[in-house]
Design a protein that fits this description.
This protein is α/β, with parallel strands linked by helices. The protein has one domain: 5'-nuclease (Rossmann fold, 3-Layer(aba) Sandwich), CATH 3.40.50. The chain is built from seven helices and five strands; from the N terminus they run H-E-H-H-E-H-H-E-H-H-E-E.
Length: 183
């Protein structure tokens, strides 16, 4: 993990340019942004504020390479895919590979919730969800942003806030410090 933190830190030209926080986006956040979804409770305001912070260098955004597959599986126009690809090229956006450490951690998380299912009767975690969580935990993010409340089947990721298979992780909906004024 220290090596990974070093690589993330040293992907910037100087230490002064380091973002002040690292946020993980689940695939559904990218898809909501790209499809310009309208959501209740100003949830998209947090997404747009984070994008501004990423573009200005105040926030580092990370996600798993599996996000690319999940985003491409959604119905996006070519121009929207191009915007997504362009956004991924920013130096404060990191599409992270799944290596053995993340695979092993993802396996532990899946096994934990397989056992948990016998206790609480809730569904297991999917492999993509376990991969997202393992990546976020491994890279020590400040928060994992998602809209996944379990409505589409599966165990809702929001319900795991604070404790993912005995690993601490803040999981929440996008948070805006300032709401946007729609004109």
């Amino acid at each position: 993990m220290q090596r990974d933190q070093y690589l993330l830190k040293n992907s910037f030209a100087s230490y002064e340019m380091l973002p002040t926080r690292t946020i993980y986006w689940d695939s559904c956040i990218f898809i909501a942004w790209l499809k310009d979804e309208k959501r209740q409770n100003h949830e998209m305001d947090g997404v747009y504020e984070c994008i501004n912070d990423v573009e200005s260098g105040r926030t580092r955004l990370i996600t798993s390479v599996i996000t690319r597959l999940e985003v491409y599986e959604s119905d996006l126009l070519p121009v929207v895919r191009a915007r997504y690809n362009s956004f991924l090229q920013r130096r404060t956006v990191h599409l992270l590979d799944q290596d053995l450490r993340i695979s092993d951690l993802g396996r532990k998380i899946r096994e934990y919730y397989h056992r948990q299912r016998e206790i609480d009767g809730l569904p297991e975690l999917t492999t993509p969800d376990a991969t997202h969580l393992a990546t976020a935990i491994h890279y020590g993010v400040a928060a994992f942003w998602t809209f996944d409340d379990g409505r589409h089947g599966g165990r809702g990721l929001l319900s795991l806030n604070g404790n993912v298979a005995d690993y601490p992780l803040i999981i929440c909906r996008p948070i805006a410090q300032q709401l946007r004024l729609e004109i």
